[in-house]
Amino acid sequence: MRWQIIAVSWCIWTTGTTLGLDAPGTSNPPGTSNPPLTSNPPPSGPLHKLFEQRHTWWGYEFPDEAIRHGEYANADRITDYSLKTIDRRHRDTQAHLSQLHKIDRSTLNADDQLNYDLFEWTLTLELEEHRFRTYLAPLNARSGLHHTIAQMAIGIRFETIDDYRNYIKRFRKLPTLLGQTMKLLKQGLEENRTPPDITLQGVPDQIDALLVDGGLDMLLEPFNNMPSSIPTELQQELRVKFETRGHAGAWYLLSKYRSFVVSQYIPNCRFDIGADTWPEGDEFYTFLLRKFTTTDMTASEIYDLGHLEVNRIRKEMLEVIRKSDFLTSNPEASTIDDDALFAAFLHYLRTDPRFYYTDPQALLAGYRNICKRIDANLPKFFGNLPRLPYGVKEIPAFMAPDQTTAYYQHGAIANAQPGWFMANTYALKQRPKYEMVALAMHEAVPGHHLQIALAQELENVPEFRKHAWFDAFGEGWALYSERLGIEIGLYDDPYDDFGRLLYEMWRACRLVIDPGIHARGWSRQKAIDFMKANTALSELNIRSEVDRYISWPGQATAYKIGELKIRELRASAEESLGEQFNIRAFHDVVLGSGSIPLDILERRVNEWIQHTKKK
To answer: What total number of domains does the chain contain?
Structure first.
């Protein structure tokens, strides 16, 4: 899962930023894949002028995002979330789409036709989502104003005096952001556009963790090792100015925010958990499924697919159980039926100390070792590797209790920031070793880091292409990446292989649970029970996951649908090309256009197959 650290709505919208090992870049080896998109002379004309106009607009309207991508033209500002500005941005986007439609797509070359299609996709989604007014619910346990404030120093550069001065200026604008956020939340209460109250129960504790025992000290970190190019006296002056006007102000604002959230907001939020209880009802959930899967699959089709996948994976899991040493150490289990065997094995996994670390640093070291093993195998599977390195570190303590097991936080070469595989060290008894290989492959390489870093390094494409994000593609690729561990040889241990299957089962369960909750009236407890019966996830993780599906409807379906499409395309390529099939070339084609909708991915892979056949 990639992470977002800006203040975002209940349903993350497409203007959100992506977050979110030493893998040296390589050139395209001869015959490995199609050549990268090129344009010579440099792109020009009405289409690219529109792209430039939109990008300049984006940098001004969302300066928080822009600086995390290394663009500092508006670094003294923060995003305006007033209702007036949100409505004006909607009109701007309508105008940009209208300008696009004045351009005759048929006159464009193949590269620009793809650029046109992706630009149209992005703008259309933004316009459609606006009518559901999701921006009136910018709070849940994983995102909100408190996350935004606490992480304002993350992922950006601190190299010059202006970098520090702009950092302080952004903090001075936080009172305005607080007022705007509270107005959005109040309007959401009036229109019944709120997160379900159950998903907000951990928010007060998160804010408390920031308000006590130096929880906000992370904001001071940029001043702890300031560049020597800044005179010592000025360093001290900047630090004092921030401590008195920035750090202290953030503490006061969060205190005020907490009071509002606890006394006025949470008690009046929706009790119902389904997206079908949003004012637009089923129409809202239908839109979300299309947005996140980039398909026209219905809730019923996704639900039925989920059951098929659960049953298939369950059979594979039983095969792996019988390959492990469980039956040797528990011979009585060989006489029980499959359901009882599965339940007994899950109990064993959840309770045996051999599967858990007792030291947070040992957990992090374990992930780093796994990542090194994966790194060494990447050139066998990819012709193109990113220049941007990544590392492993722990999730901040204030958000860890309500956070997932891990997430990816993107870096940027322009900011001298690596990508980060963020691992949760809270409640180590809930973080089993057997899931670590699959998780590392998903969040780091060849999953999110490899895909997102390569997209950021695309050449001769409009800027929006480098930062585009379609969940079915991005999360589908990361889930597909977990399975690559079989070919790399990382699942020779049956417990690691079972961990891989557990993670695949976890995503298959989402196909059942998400539409179950949002289209079929499932209760939270029914979703929890279904997950407990089919996965070895801990009680803490299961409750956290189910609450995530409640608060982010539709998104969880993207993983499996995207992964199945990529696997389908690979199988088609292998069958069509036979001995001509090259795994490195296939992966380079899949990743070579950045994040794209699944129908466009299918089209590009099929074009590559036909191109390869002609060689």
So the answer is: 1
